[in-house]
Amino acid sequence: MSETPVYTRPETLTDRPMAYCPGCGHGIAQTLLAGIIDELKIRERIVGVAPVGCAVETYNYLDIDMSEAAHGRAPAVATGIKRARPDLVVFGYQGDGDLASIGLAEIMHAANRGENYTTIFINNTIYGMTGGQMAPTTLPRQKTQTTPLGRDPETTGHPMRMCEIMATLDSPCLIARTATDSVANIRKTRALMLKAFRYQMEGRGFSFIEILSACPTYWRLSPKDSMDYIGQTLVPVFPCRIFRDRGAES
Question: Which residues have C-beta within 8 Å of that of residue 95, sequence separation ≥ 6?
């Protein structure tokens, strides 16, 4: 009796054990990326840009051309690559500390110009690689290394909702937030990422996919409890939905 495989490892995903902490969402996002690259057959003409943070590990797991950027500067590097080589498919892969803090001006101006590249934004509400400090997306009362009593909005502000901020700009063609806490949501995440790359290949302009992701290590939760935390705690603050889809409107 013949057997039909239900899953095979994407060719773009390197045969190398991932060094991410157990339960980290980066592995999910990068596996999805690899499968999309295979499906679109763009492995020989895609370039990724990942700066400082856990995102920097992306180079080890995707067998594609990649460029490292200074902290927060992925939008500038991605813009330069895409303008110099518009035939390439370009994406920035950034975490919340990187994109929404030191790189906030970079991402907002790239989006406002409508640069024709794709941003994959991993939001786990904390600085991961540097030790678990408060990030711009850290929730009120969330404990971090720099807010051991919990984030106090009166002194440190409220979490920044990047999709909502992006939606105030006229130029982006696709803005969406999704999550990695369930099989259904992972499938939605893949579909949105695939759409973003297709829009870029059609020349529609800037796309922004925010992915709510787990950081069990600095949330001080088990991998399973981290998945529950996404749905029960993150999603009420960061609603998962499509904020703009110019392709669907046309």
Answer: 53, 54, 55, 121, 122, 123, 124, 127, 128
Number of domains the chain contains: 1
Q: Are 65 and 42 in contact (CB under 8 A)?
A: no
Range of the domain at 83: 26-249
pTM of the predicted model over 0.85 = yes
Helical spans, DSSP H, in 115-208: 153-156, 162-166, 183-201
CATH of the domain at 105: 3.40.50.970
Contact present, 185 and 211 (Cβ < 8 Å): no
pLDDT in tens, 27-55: 999 999 999 999 999 999 999 999 888 88
**Other CB atoms closer than 10 Å to residue 42's CB: what's the count?**
17
